[in-house]
Amino acid sequence: MLDRIRILAQVVESGSFSRAARALSLAPSSVTRTIDSLEAQLGVPLFKRSTRQLVLTEQGDYFLARSVRLLEEADQLVQSLQPLHEAPSGPLRVSVFESFGAACLSPLLPEFLARYPGIRLEIGFDNHLVDLDADNVDVAIRIGRPTDSGLHARTLLTNRSLLVASPAYLARHGVPGTPEEIAGHNCLIRGQGRQRQHWYFRQGAQQRVRVPVQGNLTSIGGTPLLEAARAGCGLLLLSSWMVQSSLDEGSLLPVLPLWRASPYEHSDDQILVVFRGGRFLKPQSRAFIDFLVERIPPLQTREPGWPE
User: Fold this and answer.
1) Angle made by CA atoms 143, 144, 145, in degrees to the nearest 5
2) Which stretches make up the HTH lysR-type domain (predicted)?
3) Cβ contacts of 302 within 8 Å, gap of 6 or more
4) Domains of the chain, with CATH numbers?
5) I want to staple 55 with a disulfide (CB 3.0 to 4.6 A). Which of 36, 48, 69, 288 is the partner?
6) Which of 272, 257, 239, 274 is nearest to 308 (CA)?
7) What is the mean pLDDT of residues 57-70?
8) What pLDDT band is residue 300 in, cutting at 50, 70 and 90?
9) Beta-strand relationship, 119-125 and 90-96
């Protein structure tokens, strides 16, 4: 059945029986007999024979759309059984949100490609939430747990957020002494900007403060916010892996370091690598995921004064 489905998929992709036969190195009569046998097995016509163009019937379109996933799973199963000593090869599509991709992933890609020269990597920096099936993505890097129960995930690092500002901004506007004072400052906000934003602060076991924030710059991605903060435009609450180098060089300074700050009320979301496949994960996906876990260790905030 799977071999017949492969020929059907090639016929549709090629647009004719003869071109499909050339692509598969088969005789045209063999392709025709295979499609006839598949229609007989299914008990429905797959193509509209009365038209000059090659057009799937409604049943044929339905069958092919659902069969493609079976072919992909079969291929992944076969690939997952490769001997461990064989280097993985083949295409790999990865989606990662822009700021993490630029700051943490891009510097590692040459090493990954050198380690696995047979893998053909296609990577997209996307701040929208991709659908792994619809967008044909093998691996995605996201903030927060996936809502799709069919997805698997491995943790890369905890997304600790830090409140920072440039020395110039603090010199002009003063250093906030309490979380409540932040409401009077210009805040650089990560998000959609369509609803009221809050930042959340906690200290010790009991102290919890929710602060409404507003400002003149909002962005889904963190890169524009980081550049604006470094230029003295406002207070910034952003992931430690984005601001740590600026803290180290002194272009940003910690604000309220004795408080744990977060854009989320209950927790700092983790950064996860998300994938389908489970036990039968294709080898190039497994190699990429293992590489990320190996090369992206948990980040530690090194600025004195930050709470552990």
Assistant:
1) 135
2) 1-57
3) 244, 247, 248
4) 2-80 (1.10.10.10), 90-156+269-295 (3.40.190.10), 161-262 (3.40.190.290)
5) 48
6) 257
7) 83
8) very low
9) parallel
Residue with tokens 């994960």, as numbered in its chain: 281
pLDDT at 81: 62
Q: Give the full edge-to-edge strand order of the sheet including 197-203.
A: 207-213, 197-203, 260-262
pLDDT at 158 over 70: yes
Closest CA to 262 of 243, 240, 281, 280: 240
User: How big is the CA angle at 130 (ends 127 and 133), to the nearest 5 degrees?
Assistant: 165
Token output for 84: 């461990």
User: Rounded to whole angstroms, how far apart are CA atoms 308 and 142?
Assistant: 24
Other beta carbons less than 10 A from residue 153's beta carbon:
16
Q: Give the mean model confidence (pLDDT) for residues 100-113.
A: 92
pTM here is 0.62
